[in-house]
Amino acid sequence: MPPVPAERPHRNFYGRRRGKHLRDSQEVYLQEDLDALSPGAVDWEVNPDRAPLDLAARFGGREVWLEIGFGGGEHMVHQASQNPQVGIIGCEPYINGVAMLLGKIRRAGVDNLAVYPGDVRDMFDVLPDASIAKAFLLYPDPWPKARHHRRRFVTPEHLEPLARVLKPGAEFRVATDIPDYVRQTLEEVPGAGFDWLAEGPEDWRTPWGDWISTRYELKALREGRVPHYLTFRRHG
C-alpha cells in the first residue's frame, strides 16, 4: 500500500497543461466522456488520504497496464483494441492530448481504458503495490538542456514509485529518439530495480511486435532522428 503523506507534497510541474484553442467537438468529448473514464479518486481534492484505487472494481479483474504521457493517444487506443482482456490507464496532463484521445476512443469503440488528466506522480500515490503488469513511456519530453535533465521522467523521483507499483517481472518499455535520453535511461533505470533485456543492437533498433508509430515518432523519422526501443523487466 502506498504511504499516506501527512500533507500534499510540493511538486514542481514543468510541462504544458493546455495548448491552442480546442475544437468544439473536443470540448464536447471532455464534457461528456472524461468523467466516465476516470480510474477512480486520484486528485488530492477528492482523495486527501490517498486511499488506494480499487483496480479490480474498475477493470473487472483484468490485468492492468499503464501509459505515462500518452500524447495524442494513438498507441494507447491501439493497445486497448488489440488487448481487450487488459485494462489500460493513461496519464496525461496536457488537456489537448486528452481531448485527442477521447475522440479516438469514441471512434474505436474500446471500453477497457481509464484516463487521468494529470501528473502521473499523483497516480503513483494511489496505485497499490505490484498492481501494474506493463508500463509504457513513449517519446517523453526530452528536456534537452543539461540543467533540465533532472526534469526527465527517468530520475529517481519517478522511477522509484514506478518500480513500487509494477509487479515482479513486469515489462517497462521506453521509446525515444534522443540519444542523451537513451544514455540517462540506461544509467538510471537499472538502478531502480530493472533489468535491460537487450542482447544485441537489433533489440533496441527494432520496434516491438505490437508497435504502432505515434505522431511523435513519425516526426522524428521525417527529421532524420533514430528511434530507440528499450525494454526493461522489473526484478522478480
Description:
This protein is of the alpha/beta class and 236 residues long. The protein has a single domain (24-234), classed as 3-Layer(aba) Sandwich (Rossmann fold), CATH 3.40.50.150. Helix content is 33%, strand content 19%. It has 9 helices and 7 strands, in the order H-H-E-H-E-H-E-H-E-H-E-H-E-H-H-E. It has a 7-stranded mixed sheet, with helices on both faces. Helix 6 links the parallel strand 4 and strand 5 (166-176). Helix 1 crosses helix 4 (95-108). The longest helix has 14 residues, at 95-108. The protein is globular and about 45 Å long. The two termini are 18 Å apart. The model has no long low-confidence stretch (mean pLDDT 91).
